[in-house]
Amino acid sequence: MTSYTEKIQEAAKRLLKEGKVDMVIGFRRGSVPMMNQPHYVKSAEEAEALIWDSHCGLNLANYLTDREDKVGIVAKGCDSRNIANHIVENKINREQVYIIGVPCTGMVDRHKLPKMVEGDIIEVAEDGDAITVKTVNGDTKNFNKADVLQQNCADCSHRNPVIYDEMIADPVEEQTDTDMFASVREIEAMSPDEKWDYFEDLISSCIRCYACRNACPLCYCPLCFVDESDPQWVGKSQDPIDVRTFHWLRAYHCAGRCTDCGACERVCPMGIKIREFTKKLNKDCYELYGWEAGLTTEERPPLDTYRPNDPEDFIK
Amino acid sequence: MITFKLNGQTVQGEEGQYLLQVAENYGVYIPTLCNHKALEPAGMCRLCTVELFDGRRTKFVTACNYPIWEGMEIQTDTEVVHEGRKLIVEMLLARCPEVPVIQKLAKQYGIEEPRFEAEDNTCILCGLCTRVCERMGNGAITLTNRGVDLKVDTPFHLQTDICQGCGACAFLCPTGHITLDKINRLITTHQPEMIKSEYDVGMRGRKPIYVPYPQAVPNTPAIDRDVCMHFKTGGCQICKDICPVNAIDHTMADETVELNVGSVILAPGFEPYDPANLDFYNYDHPNVITSMEMERMLSASGPTGGHLVRLSDHQAPKRIAWLQCVGSRDMNRCNNAYCSSVCCMYAIKEAVIAKEHAGDDLDCSIFFMDMRTPGKDFEKFYEDAKNKSGVNFVRSRIHTIAPVPETDELELRYVTESGDPLTENFDLVVLSIGLQMPQEIIELSRKLDIDLTPGNFCDTKTFSPVSTSREGIFACGAFQGPKDIPQSVIDSSAAAAAAAESLADARNTTTKEKEVVPERDIAGERPKIGVFICRCGTNIAGVVDVPEVVAYTRGLPFVEFVDENLFTCSQDTQDNMSATIAEKGLNRIVVAACTPKTHEPLFQETLINAGLNKYLFEMTNIRNQDSWVHKNNPEMATQKAKDLVRMAVAKVARMEPLQESELPMNHAAMVVGGGISGMAAAKSLADQGFETHLIEKSGCLGGQAKNLYHTAKGESVSENLEEMVASVQGHDHIRLHLNTGIQNVEGFVGNFQTTLSENGKEEKLEHGAVILATGATPYTPTEYAYGEDPRILTSLELDKKFNENDPALEKINGAAFIQCVGSREPGRMYCSRVCCTHSIENALELKRRNPEMNVYILYRDIRTYGEKEYLYKQARQEGVIFIRYALDDKPQVAVNDDGLSITVTDHILNRPIELNVDLLTLATAIIPSADEAFANLFKIPMNEDGFFIERHAKLGPAESATDGVFLCGMAHYPKPIDESIAQAKAAVSRAVTLLSQESIHSSGTIAEVDPTKCAACGVCISVCPYSAPSFIEEGRFAGKARINPALCKGCGLCAASCRSGAIHLKGFDTDQIMSQIFEMDEAV
Amino acid sequence: MSDKEPKILSFLCNWCSYGAADLAGVSRMEYPSNIRVIRIPCTGRMSAKFILAGLRQGADAVWVSG
């Protein structure tokens, strides 16, 4: 990973020096472990702050929305798919972005790891697939990275960027034996009552902080439906109907566009598995239209388009 | 007015009214068995007995025939009254123990067994029958005898010819004593029959007063004078008494109207062939039906409610057979040698729908000679019917339908393709009957001095397909030849264009300007809502408690005025409404009445006349979707009406005045493509006085037709083409642009700006409409050794040789044609429509040049639809040999030194045979010329085969979904010259509806973007089927979306798709629909 | 509406289903009264939000037809 960091810094410096971009968006180390922060680098000198490790789980495409300058951006597989989606949805021009592609081996689950150790984590180090965690108690524990990955990373089949201007390393091997929709199938098999209970339980702890929406690169509307007052789609309260309405509509707004980057889950302070909503829609889009979001800049998502042979079995 | 007391309540009635009528008005129930509002009351049953106090003493009177008077006091509900009624019911029950209506009454009065001796009568002597019979003007039955022998009968108990069998007595008889069967057996000497519903092809009855079918235009009832009793006896006229608006006038007589017109269009239609005289089909068997009967049976509004049954026992059929070509392609048993064109496709459709209705267990078989599905997308439908729906297709002509004795089944015997005889039984056999000209139309044609074809269809020429032999008279639809809906619609528009060409000078000479009432500005006013609730006679008020709804509505927010009307749509109510709007200063109007689908425009007109913007209006549906469908639940219906009115009030409060923007119309037209279709379109436009630009990419006009030799009717193509080219080239209103391509198209309907590249030079063209006639090209075969030998040609190459009069053609000993080269196979699953006729015509031409020549046509199905069938027959008569091959066993072609050798499996011998010929013609597929980039210029979609998709397959066959862009010719689908010209004229006809206007008005109910909320994601641009949204190019909101009001159809797809809620659909805006949802149910 | 019957909110396309509902009336068909119809210009106008709002308003079922 250190080699990635150096390469990223080198690329950022070069691009800024050559004046190819006005700014590079990457990650810098966060103030607490596993919480790397997005970082805007505007001069070659600042590039030293850029890093790369298994805690760069936020989706940097989020920071490209409506930018008018030329931007270099560090992008793993999912970020690049959201950049592609941004280009399709006119959030940025392809010519404005210089994509520094990062072949990704997955991000560590910042909700899961703390539960696997005693006491607060003060440091997480990594060497290849080995993750070493130090806690406030002075304990050190070793993990295999595969065991502590975010679920979306464990299931990921697009680890390498789909569009880029340069790659900082050779592509990693894509995972082919994963089943990204296993949990959706489990839910689909439930009875309506079980489903209801499952989702009620899932969102019962939601505090409506909208961190999931804010972290999502798809949520760029000037006025979000949750903030509209006439008509008021969603109440501002913790009323369960309002909470449900928010989650369902948010998921629907992502239908056919979600790249399953996991930023929403990562940022959720309550650790809610929000992807259970979007994944079902991803599965439908995949099965009905053969569509995975963000793999092309040539085509719009399936819900934006009509083809005479679109499946219409849902019409009874 | 007479005032009296009814059960203690003070009530009022009109002088001359009977007590029962007033009680009914006040909702006081009094039982009766002998009263009917159409008849004078007789006080026969005595059930309506009530207690009367006349100031001095109490007595009992029958309410039905007791006239009201001032100051009387009536009690309907006292114990004495009930005692008396109970006794009457008890006696009636003893007389008629088996009559349901009496049993029901007895139950109500708690009578289990009557104390009197039981009889077995069914007549209660109420006299409704005799009174109605008299009213009918007949008086065929009466009460005969006296005392205990009193009964209803004819004089002397003899059947009488005075009884017309109208059935009114049976209709009114409350007990079921009189039945239609008894009328036939005992009363009348006539033999009355059910009045058959024409719409339901006799599968059910209809009344003498009837609306022909639910979608009839005008949708008003008519009286059938042939069966109406009034016109037979002078009596009845009950309808006149009952109609609350006095609309019925029996004295109206037929009028002779003389019209002074410049042209006449004939669209008299056809009649379905009547199979009754084909005795071997046993059409009189209940389970042998025609396709028309099948259509009605499959319809949800049909006689069986959409249930598929065999008519003998109303059980669901398990096996259904369709027999094709009944009354078509048949000279032996009827005189219809032509193909009826539509039956193959409708039979497939019926079979597929039948299977959809009944599921996979239903076995559907279609017995046919040639499967003829040459229409657009028909071949795919045929393939899907075979492969997906599992319909069986059997190539065999059935000779006899034999009823299987002692069952309801029918036996079909036939020979399979492999030659095996088979016998199968079916529950239902559908005769796919053809189209033919009725005798009266043949006579009409004679009167009009119009030539007919051998099949008695209107004779027209290929290059003037809607012109009859008499100048100024045009024809369209099946009168011109058997055809389906799209072709009929094309022809009808074409005939309109042809008529308009000759009448162009008269356009707009008799128009009048309408006076405009200035619109009141309601800005800043709080909503003042007026609600008009319609009783619709008794249609609504008979079920919904209208006064209750009115009272309820008064309490709704912003409601300023509420009124109920007998008929809100009547002229006087409209005038009152206008006056009320002005008087009360109303600024929003709700009408609760029938349905906005029919009456919204009328009420909006009233708003306009009252100076209100017509969009400050909402109509809610308390008749069609309330009183009519919940007539047995008045309470719920009233509740629903309140809810619906509340929802409408909530919505209308949020309505804003909407403006219809007015855009100028550029009257020039552009036609793209200089082939036959394009030239026909340009000429028709120019003849109607519109400046027309004809764009052709090559250096000359004529297109593919330059290669064609003869039409199917034997006319020379080159001669007609020359004439056409000359008329286009010399036309004052046509500007020719040869060697011209289209680089860019901007703008929209009425205001297109097209950039041309003419001989390499750029030119900008402004025009109001476009007709695309970009045509098609022949497929270049890679199969059948094409290109390896000069003796292997395509159809067009053979035409060229005919045109050049190649002498080598006469020396040929053997010639073969292979059909469906590149058509009707995976990857190009469509029939090219023209090739069968073309090859047969060419085969005949070879025979004409050398009658000794052996000519073979290798085909899959011969598709000489319509009267082209004659050519097929002629070819067989002249010795052309037809050999059918299968898609999976195509002919093999080998090139030898001395000739061409074709190996094909003969369908009769079922073994390969070898044909040695000197000429092989390949009937190649027709491929559209335009590409996707071209289609994108005009924003019109293409189907997977590359043909432009029309606006509506049936109703908009010459238009595209983009306003102002029209289609014709081969770019739409392969078609022969006559159909291409008809479609070109149809496209012109549709285009002229726009071009002839001074300006175009957009609707007010269109979408609009709030740019401050727009996220510029582009979903609206992607989803809009009409290309109305685009990105703003400059200014403060550059990059945000805007919607062109001229293109927006107000469907709301964009508004629903807009995640950020930036798009407002005026008239159906989010807050308006939400307000309806919020008011849906008021915790009732 | 009655307590026992489900409340149905329906959104009908002006061009087809709304006309069909009218035709049901013209044909004097009968159906339960526990349905409230909102006419929309096209089912394309239908937003998931309307369905959720309807359910929230107390509808037991929402029927979209077009």
Quick summary:
The complex is a heterotrimer of chains A (316), B (1084) and C (66). Chain B has 1084 residues and is an alpha/beta fold.
Give a written overview of the molecule.
The complex is a heterotrimer of chains A (316), B (1084) and C (66). Chain A is 28% helix and 14% strand. Chain A is an alpha/beta fold and 316 residues long. Chain A has two domains: 1-106 and 152-173, no CATH class; 179-311, no CATH class. In chain A, strands 1, 2, 3, 4, 5 and 9 form a six-stranded mixed sheet that branches. A three-stranded antiparallel sheet of chain A has the order 6-7-8, with no helix packed on it. In chain A, 41% of the residues are buried. Chain B has 1084 residues and is an alpha/beta fold. Chain B is 27% helix and 20% strand. In chain B, helix 19 links the parallel strand 27 (669-672) and strand 28 (692-695). Chain C has one domain. In chain C, helix 1 (17-26) links the parallel strand 1 and strand 2 (35-40). Chain C has helices at 17-26, 48-56; strands at 8-13, 35-40, 61-65. With 66 residues, chain C is an alpha/beta fold. A three-stranded parallel sheet of chain C has the order 2-1-3, sandwiched between helices. Chains in contact: A-B, A-C, B-C. The interface between A and B is medium-sized, with 21 and 24 residues.
Count of folded domains of chain B: 8
Q: Strand order of the main beta sheet of chain C, please?
A: 2-1-3
Major sheet characteristics of chain B: 5 strands, mixed
- Per CATH, the class of the largest domain in chain B reads Alpha Beta
Helix proportion of chain C: 25-40%
**What are the segments of chain B in which pLDDT stays under 50 over at least 5 consecutive residues?**
none
C-alpha Rg of chain C (nearest Å): 12 Å
* C-alpha-based Rg of chain B, rounded: 36 Å
Task: Name the helix and strand elements of chain C from N-terminus to C-terminus, one letter apiece.
Answer: EHEHE
Question: Which CATH architecture of the largest domain in chain B?
Answer: 3-Layer(bba) Sandwich
**What is the count of β-strands of chain B?**
49
What is the helix fraction of residues of chain B, given as a range?
Answer: 25-40%
User: What's the rounded overall pLDDT mean of chain C?
Assistant: 90
Give the uncertain stretches of chain C in residue-range form: none
If strands are numbered along the chain, what order do they take across the biggest sheet of chain B?
A: 2-1-5-3-4
How many E-type strands of chain C?
Answer: 3
Mean pLDDT across every amino acid position of chain B: 94
Beta-strand level of the residues of chain C, as a percent range? 25-35%
Largest interface, Cβ cutoff 8 Å? B-C, 45 and 38 residues
The secondary structure category of chain B is: alpha/beta
Given helix and strand content, the structural type of chain C is alpha/beta
